[in-house]
Specification:
With 330 residues, the protein is α/β, with parallel strands linked by helices. The chain folds into two domains: 2-107, Beta Barrel (OB fold (Dihydrolipoamide Acetyltransferase, E2P)); 111-326, Rossmann fold. Helix content is 30%, strand content 26%. It contains ten helices and 13 strands. It has helices at residues 2-5, 14-28, 66-69, 109-126, 153-165, 183-197, 221-229, 246-250, 258-265, 269-275; strands at 32-43, 49-55, 58-64, 81-91, 96-106, 144-148, 171-175, 202-207, 234-238, 253-255, 294-296, 314-318, 321-326. A six-stranded parallel β-sheet has the order 10-9-8-6-7-11. A five-stranded mixed barrel has the order 1-2-3-5-4. A two-stranded antiparallel sheet has the order 12-13. Helix 7 (221-229) links the parallel strand 8 and strand 9 (234-238). Helix 5 runs parallel beside helix 9 and helix 6 packs parallel to helix 7. It is elongated and about 95 Å long. The termini are far apart. 29% of the residues are buried. The model is unreliable at 287-291 and 299-330 (pLDDT under 50).
Length: 330
């Protein structure tokens, strides 16, 4: 550019101009985070993503190439508020300035991650994550508790695994919302109720996968405190294998999924049978067929033996499966 300036009247081609403009943009502006709303999103057959990022006053074209897009574990959609880490550049063939995106996240997840790290550091300093306070899960539990939503697919998965591994073990479900307003407080209340009743030997706290916002209730301090105070060993199964929450760090055992939590909580009757010599029968071995005994607990409901309870002796349908004879009581 200095040479061009020292040559009055010098003429350059459009390609040279665009190349110079690109160099100026890339050298003058560092890699930065930019927030905006996605529009005109296109996922090309090549694997590249193209979209426009806009706010009320302006817009800019963006490109996220395949080798970077494969590290984004969620699907962008038009209307989403996102934050992109990008390099400002110019697409020379069209002379259009754009952002070459390195990575992207939902807007606000940066603040959530910072809050996660602050709480993790504070609770860790208090000793809530210490290995010496972790309790071993019982080898042969007499009853298993589950804290999750009664409508969740995760509950269906857990009950299916438990029924397959050891159908004779009663299961007590403490239903609670696991997402949305006050979900953290409700989860903590369900854990506290299970601890106070002391009617199971191990407690599964679980939900299926989702975004960081979906799983956020399990990152709340009230849930961490409830797990820490629980008189029953707690195994968590929150989200997918790559998801880690504050609840996982406090729990006695962290399982990567709800199904894995069920496997950790219950012994496998088939394995026990294989360990028996010859055709010996284990005393009290569970039947090969039959449903998993299950009780649905509702901490907000109160029923006494003298009260009529229309929900007694009903069959609870969890995810479409007839799972258990069900009673709702405090």
């Amino acid at each position: 550019m200095k040479n061009l300036g020292s040559q009055p009247g010098a003429v350059i081609g459009v390609s040279a101009l665009n190349r110079l403009a690109r160099d100026v943009l890339e050298q003058a502006l560092p890699l930065m985070w930019v927030r905006g709303e996605i529009s005109n999103f296109t996922a090309a057959v090549s694997g590249h993503w193209y979209f426009t990022l806009k706010d009320p006053g302006a817009q800019v074209r963006c490109a996220l190439f395949r080798h970077k897009a494969r590290f984004v574990d969620w699907r962008p959609e038009n209307g989403m508020q996102v934050e992109v880490r990008a390099l400002v550049t110019l697409y020379e063939p069209r002379g259009e300035y754009q952002l070459n995106v390195e990575t992207m996240r939902r807007a606000g997840t940066g603040a959530l991650y910072e809050a996660f790290e602050r709480l993790k550091a504070r609770l860790g300093a208090e000793g809530l994550f210490n290995a010496e306070r972790k309790r071993a899960l019982p080898v042969f539990p007499q009853a298993i508790g589950v804290v999750t939503s009664s409508q969740a697919a995760a509950l269906r998965d857990v009950l299916t695994i438990l029924a397959r591994r050891m159908p004779s073990i009663p299961v007590i479900v403490y239903p609670t919302p696991v997402q949305g307003t006050d979900a953290g407080r409700n989860i903590a209340a369900a854990i506290a109720a299970a601890s106070a009743r002391n009617e199971c030997d191990v407690l599964i706290v679980c939900r299926g996968g989702g975004s960081i916002e979906d799983l956020w209730a399990f990152n709340e301090e009230v849930v961490a405190r409830a797990i820490h105070a629980c008189a029953i060993p707690v195994v968590t199964g929150v989200g997918h294998e790559t998801d880690f929450t504050i609840a996982d760090f406090v729990a006695d055992l962290r399982a990567p999924t709800p199904s894995a939590a069920a496997q950790a909580a219950a012994p496998d009757r088939r394995e026990l049978e294989r360990r028996c010599e010859g055709n010996a029968v284990v005393r009290g071995a569970p039947p090969t067929r039959g449903e998993l005994p299950c009780t649905l607990r509702a901490p907000v409901s109160r029923c006494t033996p003298n009260q009529s309870n229309s929900k007694k002796n009903l069959v609870a349908r969890v995810g479409g499966i007839s799972a258990c004879a069900c009673a709702v009581r405090a």
